[in-house]
């Protein structure tokens, strides 16, 4: 189903979510086991891999190059959806619509802090942007490496980073059980900034060391070439002696270890990277941030290693990750009751919320300048063929689709007891519908 929806609508996760919705509402034990713990655990691992992969594909130099312009676009794309989402959900809750749909619970019995937290969680889920959808569609049109492609990917990445920080705060609020307190917000913020600083700083330091080594190797090339002729004469005798030594120590333990490592070097390196990323994810959650932010930053750190990135793409991205991601989005569908999602009232509120969610991201067209690149050729390739404001509309349309991270935040908020089932259904509807709108609008503007 994911492959089918990818071909038809360029939105793979909708098909996977639909399958989870259908299978999750069957009677227990019909086609799925009654205890879905194993499937949910596999989905959690899958989303960690998905976020780690997003970090692994981040180019820190591009982020720096895009600079304040992308940060401004991302800031508007976060603040406006967060504010409008909060206002909508808070208003609907105060009007007792949520309580009535939940089963007639008196709104006076709900604490004001619970209503506020639920509205914040719903608005925070709309602050994210699907970088995976944007990158895939721009790659198909051949504009990913242009100035506007860099601007969109950087702004979307910054949106996701802030959304992950918000997810850490929401999870902390839900886990505290005592509402909003100063440390409930401050601790996740400090932990998140620390996690980001260590990971991104380490990546930048590694990149500098590699560039220095590359420059020093280039400077020493002439010396090496001048000495190579002189070494060849003496190497003949040395090589013969080394051959004798290797034969004598062939059964040595160190030799066996070296041979074993050489044979399985790629597997060992890949396993080490995955263990380090998983450990950093656990550390982030232990410190009060989000484990997904830890996985993302760990991916950014390892993005400096080209060989590890290639191994991950070959062994995980192409073979394992699609199935794990599909299981995760299906498990989100498990939590959505089919009887509720088909109710006219919930469906109607979801459509209204989707319109608000789409317009709140489209506001970013005001921030984007008419000319994104100073070079005329690149400007023509990156979107201004459709008129003076082509680049602006392209950025605005690209930011509408929420995708995987928005659904993840809704799922986490409901799991933490922060969001009611009815609010979760309305917010999920808005994310799915706005994602479809965003895919269609972005495709239209690019063409």
Automatic annotation (TrEMBL):
Record-annotated membrane-spanning stretches: 12-32, 38-58, 70-92, 112-135, 147-173, 185-207, 257-283, 289-308, 320-339, 345-368, 389-410, 422-445
Keywords: Antiport, Ion transport, Membrane, Sodium, Sodium transport, Transmembrane, Transmembrane helix, Transport
Domain spans labelled Cation/H+ exchanger transmembrane: 13-216, 262-446
Primary location group: membrane
A cellular component annotation (GO) from this entry: membrane
Pfam families: Na_H_Exchanger
Highest rank taxon of the organism: Eukaryota
Swiss-Prot/TrEMBL GO biological process terms: proton transmembrane transport; sodium ion transport
InterPro entries (UniProt xref): Cation/H_exchanger_TM, Na+/solute_symporter_sf
UniProt keyword Protein biosynthesis present: no
An annotated Gene Ontology molecular function: antiporter activity
Compartment annotation: Membrane
Topology in the lipid bilayer: Multi-pass membrane protein
PANTHER family (UniProt xref): NAPA-TYPE SODIUM/HYDROGEN ANTIPORTER, SODIUM ION_PROTON EXCHANGER (EUROFUNG)
Record-given protein name: Cation/H+ exchanger transmembrane domain-containing protein
Provenance organism: Linnemannia hyalina
